[in-house]
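Researcher: Go.
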Amino acid sequence: MLRRILRVLFTVLAVVLLLPFSARAHAQNVEISVSKDGFDHIANYTVDVEAGHEVTITFNYADDDLDTDNPHEIQILGAGVNLPTVTVSRENPKAEITFTATQTGTLTILCVVPCIGMEKLVGGTIHVIKPKETGLSTSLALEVSSSNEESALARVTLVDSRGSPISGVPVIFSLHTIVGGELVLGTSSTTEDGSAELLIPATAGQTLRVSASFEGGNGLASSQFMAEIQMPGEGAAIPVGVLSSPTPPPVLAIILLIVLGGIWLTYGAVVFQVFRIRNGGASK
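Model: Structure:
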C-alpha cells in the first residue's frame, strides 16, 4: 500500500515538473503628477506599459502653487480601452485608473475641461508594448563619456545573475529628447566580455540622456539602464540676423516700401475700376 502511494506521489511530481511554467501577470504601477506645466511637468509625457498585465495609474494634483484651485478631468483614450474619467483637484488630490491593455498600440492621456495650462495636458502618451521577456535576471551597466565636443561614447556591460558576461546579444541605445520622447540611436551586439559601444553625435554644452536596453530572450530577462552627461564646452551662440535687427538696413527698408506701395496701388486701381463699372451700369 505504501509503495502504491509513493508511486502515485512520484508520478504527480514528475508530471508537475515536466509541465511548462506559465507566465504570471505582474502589476504595473505608474505615478503621474498633473499641473499647469503638463503631466509630470512636461508637455509631451510618455510612459511604457506592457500588454496583458494590469496597470494602475495614479494621478496626483500638483497645482498647489496657484492662488485658486485648478481642477483637471482626465481621460485615457485609445483602441481597446473604455475607461472612466477621473478628476484631481485640491479637494480630491489623488485619483486612480486601473485597466489591462489587451493589445499593443498608443493611448492618449488628456485633460478634457478648460483649465490653466490645458494646452500642455493634451499630449500625454501611453505606449502599450509587448510583454518583456522573463527568465534568468540580467544586469545592464551604462557609462557615457565625451570623446570630444562633437561626440559622446556610450558603453554598456551586460551580465547575468551570476556576474558572467552575456555575449552576442543586441543592446538598443536611445536618446531622451527634450519633448519627452525617445529617439533610437542604434543597436550594438555585446562582445565576449559582455560589452557594447555606440558613438553618439553631440554638440558642445548639450545635455544627453541616454538609455540602453536589452529586451531579453532565450531564457534571459530584460534589463535597462539610463545615464546622463553634460557635454564640455559652451553652446554655439545664435547670431542675430539683419532681418531681426531693431534697425534694418536702408536697402531692405526701401525694398519693403516699394513692395507695400505696389500692393496698395494695385488695390486702389481695382477699387477704381469697380466703381467705374458700377457707375457705368447705373447711367444706362
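Model: Confidence is low (pLDDT under 50) at residues 8-25.
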